[in-house]
Design brief:
alpha/beta, 5-stranded parallel β-sheet, 8 helices
């Protein structure tokens, strides 16, 4: 009898292995043109390159890219419930706010929208990272400072992981920017891929 139960237990564990081995971290990326690959072919964009890197290394990580060029935080709020329901991500990465800042949206409104995006993601059961977006100083030092500080404020208030901005070193290097001086070019994409590979690893490790 004991031998029978031992065999049964071993078989039961073996049947579970295929399911546990394919378990993935599903990261839903909510972003704008910087993650949508504006001005580039899909195969050149950093998200595509990063997913290929995960595949080559057999890392069980899937990036669900819902980034849309021109997207603002209020646009994203209109879609997030449906996206969370459709994709059921384990993690949500929010890379948004650049278009809000360029258009001079009130900081109070930006913080409200970011907070709602984070809270909706948390409520779905996902772990959340908020990328600390920075904008050009066109609207003056006070607005620029308040804009960037709003990300740390939202992250602290919602107990959310704050991820550094992938454009900080790229935006100041003209050789890595498209002619509009707003979007990274193809040469910059592998640099962003490697940056995000490291930062996502840190985030996933912290959320275990």
């Amino acid at each position: 009898m004991t031998r029978f139960f031992l065999k049964f237990t071993v078989l039961f564990i073996l049947t579970l292995l295929p399911f546990t081995s394919v378990a993935k971290d599903k990261i839903m990326l909510i972003g704008d043109s910087l993650s949508a690959g504006y001005g580039l072919k899909q195969a050149q964009a950093w998200v595509y390159l990063l997913q290929n890197k995960y595949a080559a290394e057999k890392k069980p990580i899937e990036i669900i890219n819902t980034a849309i060029s021109g997207q603002t935080t209020d646009n994203a709020l209109l879609k997030i419930d449906a996206s969370l329901q459709t994709h059921k991500p384990s993690h949500v990465l929010i890379e948004l706010g650049g278009n809000d800042g360029i258009r001079g949206f009130p900081i109070k409104v930006l913080k409200k929208h970011l907070t709602q995006l984070v809270e909706k993601s948390h409520q779905s059961g996902a772990k959340v990272a908020l990328m600390e977006i920075q904008i050009p100083p066109n609207l003056g030092p006070r607005y620029t400072r308040m804009f960037t500080e709003s990300y740390q404020s939202v992250a602290e208030q919602t107990n959310t992981y704050l991820m550094p901005y992938f454009m900080t070193s790229i935006a100041v290097d003209n050789s890595l920017m498209q002619n509009d001086n707003l979007h990274p070019n193809a040469k910059a994409q592998p640099i962003i891929r490697d940056f995000m590979y490291t930062e996502i690893d840190k985030w996933l490790a912290s959320s275990k």
